[in-house]
Design brief:
By secondary structure, the protein is of the alpha/beta class. Helix content is 30%, strand content 24%.
Length: 202
């Protein structure tokens, strides 16, 4: 949807898309390799302009085969260490969220594998090697007809902030400025059709 909207709005413009974990996208943006990033929970720093978009709830994702004999009720956060997790390394926003929220309860996650790539995480979950903690949007484009069991994490719920980032040290081009608005509208329409975007700071 973004490529379609971009080509319609800016027929003379060129769009390049790279996909990676949020920490890598932040570094690429600071190095000038990308103009705009769509990332989870970026750490505030003077060199970044952060535009919050939406809070996304996190879920426990399991293979349907591994979970077929278990109840599919919500999972209390306190019980999360019972599940071996396939999860990114410590620099990742999702991992830091899980670690910090369990630490408040005096607990640690049970780490089966550290994998820095959503597609590979879901491959291993599908094969039954463990479970993942991800927002539902992470399943878009990665399921390829596979089915997963999705359970809410409760008491408390886990949520992560999706944000747009740009450099605070480089001037933004007119095309990038217009693209920011286009990306925001596309993300809201595709991922959150019933949720209004967060207010923008001016």
């Amino acid at each position: 949807p973004l490529v379609k909207s971009f080509r319609k709005s800016f027929p003379e413009g060129t769009l390049g898309v790279v996909e990676a974990l949020s920490a890598s996208v932040v570094e690429w943006l600071l190095e000038g390799r990308v103009d705009i990033g769509l990332v989870y929970s970026p750490a505030p720093r003077p060199s970044l302009e952060i535009r919050p978009l939406h809070e996304q709830e996190m879920f426990l994702i399991s293979s349907r085969t591994a979970a077929k004999h278990r109840q599919r009720k919500p999972v209390p956060l306190r019980e999360l260490p019972r599940y071996p997790l396939i999860i990114p390394s410590r620099s990742n926003a999702n991992r830091m969220l899980v670690d910090s929220q369990l630490a408040h309860l005096g607990l640690k996650p049970q780490i089966e594998c550290e994998i820095d790539g959503i597609a590979s995480v879901l491959d291993l979950v599908h094969e039954g090697y463990g479970h993942a903690v991800l927002p539902l949007s992470s399943l878009r484009g990665h399921t390829f007809g596979r089915s997963f069991t999705v359970r809410s994490i409760v008491r408390p719920k886990l949520s992560i902030q999706l944000s747009l980032i740009t450099s605070a040290q480089r001037p933004i081009t007119p095309l990038a400025k217009e693209s920011l608005l286009l990306i925001q509208k596309t993300v809201s329409r595709v991922l959150f059709p019933e949720t209004p975007p967060a207010p923008q700071k001016h």
